[in-house]
Amino acid sequence: MDMNAPPPVLELTDLGKTYGRRGGRVQAVRGVSLRVDAGEVYGFLGPNGAGKSTTIRMLIGLIAPTAGSVRLFGKDLAADASVLRRVGSLVDGGAFYPFLSGRRNLEVLAKTHGGGGGRIDALLEQVGLAKDARRKVKAYSTGMRQRLGVAAALLGDPDVVILDEPVNGLDVAGIQEMRRLIRGLADDHNKTVFLSSHLLSEVQQVCDRVAIIHKGEVVRESTVAGLLEQEATGLRVEASPIDAAEAALRGNWPVERQGDALSIAATKAEAPRVARRLVNAGVDLFALTPVQRNLEEVFLAITQDEAPADA
Amino acid sequence: MLDAIAAEALKFRRHRATWGLVWIWPIGLVVIWLLAIGVELANGEAEVAAAPTAAGWIASATGFWNVPGHPLGRYLIGAFVAVVFAGEYAWNTWKLIVPHRARATLIAAKYAVALGLLACGFALGAAAFNALGWLEDVATGDPIPAGITAAALLKAHGLAALAASAPLVLTTAYVSLAAILTRSTVGALVIGLVVTTAEQLFRSFAPMLELYAPSLVGGLYRVLPGYHLGNLGSWLTEGRVLEIPFPSGVFSMSAAASLGIVAAWIAILIGLTFRSFRRQDIN
């Protein structure tokens, strides 16, 4: 281990949260450990009730963990909450004071931060709310609140931005804009982004790494590409004659006929063996491709197959 | 800390609750006075009252400071404090600001702004009450006694304001704790109303209740804040302690003891508010 390496931006160690006492105990989060490095866009996935929001609330000091620790920039959050000044967050789709305008809300937040409001106009412009800045937030649509929430998260020019479901309520154009914004934070401004989303296609397009949380536990953590590769379901074979190909492979791998092709339960590493066996059997091989599921299929498979025991 | 107070003031300076529960005092007084004086002048039936003494006129002119200690005044104080402290739960906005400031600072800023705005509202109300009383005397021809000086008037206002500050701060302490514990504006309001009413009722009916449970009633009367609020007010504005006739004898305590007991109640309630919020999960 390089002792001179900077600490991870965010490090969770055996993080847990239990609600209630004795008979009514509910473990919302248990044993969550992960680390996020500078400049990464890290996705946090999980079905409803998996523990995503509870974990995010523990990251920003809204909820006290009952086990484990949260370290931000190498500092234990429980011992030094001032480190949260380097964190911007959007939780619950941007909850704001409904009786104040969007701009006034940001002014309140800037004063709470203890900083000036010099960035407010630029941020309102950046999230496309400059024209509506003087309207009261109670008249905002869900998407407008969400965009104001992003502006609020960026207000203190934080080093790490934590976004809970940032594309909720946005239209297609808004989602694309948000995707560009999130990627730009990491690529152009070297900020670290930790985001949760139920829109898996968004995560697939935006995130460098992902963790999948299910029933309060992290069940997978990987790069998006690595996860898809790990979860490849087999190989697809296009060959002729197809009957001879099926006969050559059966006995070594489970084979399933899919129209004019075969699907075999083999790993990518076994592809050369499959090819040799087909060639040796005198079969013409036209295509041999790994069958990859998209993130949504992977996510569903993991959360259905690997359900940890209930608390 | 000043930034946190400025943020809190920015939220509530023009909030509807501030207009309806704080600025209502000076504005309402002016409106009511204009109506009353208009009717009086229009009817032409104004009776010339007997000339009061200077002390009587000053006591009457500073009478508005009784409002913060009156049950209705305390209900309205409680309603405003409930909005200031529990509003963040209703708007779901604690999660917007908690990550950026120490929780103790956020609560301290709320106390500063709630008490500051209420103090401004009552001070303006008292000034309006005084000025309008004088104008009424001038308009209706009522005699204004000689010997009223600005210094005497200011001193009377100062002492009355001090007397009013005890129920104001105590009510704020009750309701702020209720707001943090219930996380509900209505819950805080109802608890504040019930506690304030119970405190006032016990203060009034304790002499009768003593017949049934003398030691319990005596003990409670000694430690609960009802008597002590009245005692402090009496000592500050009239220069004497309150003597309450009980079946077993006259009950009376020194102003210093009353000050200590009221201060202890306020410190405990506000301390519990800080402690409860520091440990609270914001879901």
Topology:
The complex is a heterodimer of chains A (311) and B (283).
Chain A: E1 10-19, E2 26-36, E3 41-45, H1 52-59, E4 67-72, E5 75-76, E6 87-90, H2 102-113, H3 120-126, H4 142-154, E7 160-164, H5 172-187, E8 192-196, H6 200-206, E9 209-214, E10 217-223, H7 224-230, E11 234-240, H8 242-249, E12 255-258, E13 261-264, H9 271-280, E14 284-291, H10 295-305
Parallel strand pairs in A: 3-8, 3-9, 6-7, 7-8
Antiparallel strand pairs in A: 1-2, 1-4, 4-5, 9-10, 11-13, 11-14, 12-13
Helix pairs in contact in A: 3-4
Chain B: H1 2-12, H2 16-21, H3 24-43, H4 54-61, H5 71-90, H6 94-97, H7 103-140, H8 150-182, H9 185-209, H10 214-223, H11 225-238, E1 244-246, E2 249-251, H12 255-278
Antiparallel strand pairs in B: 1-2
Helix pairs in contact in B: 1-7, 3-7, 5-7, 5-8, 5-9, 7-8, 7-12, 8-9, 8-11, 8-12, 9-10, 11-12
Q: What characteristics describe this protein?
A:
heterodimer; A: 311 residues; alpha/beta; 6-stranded mixed beta sheet; 4-stranded antiparallel beta sheet; 10 helices; 32% helix; elongated; B: 283 residues; mainly alpha; 12 helices; 2 strands
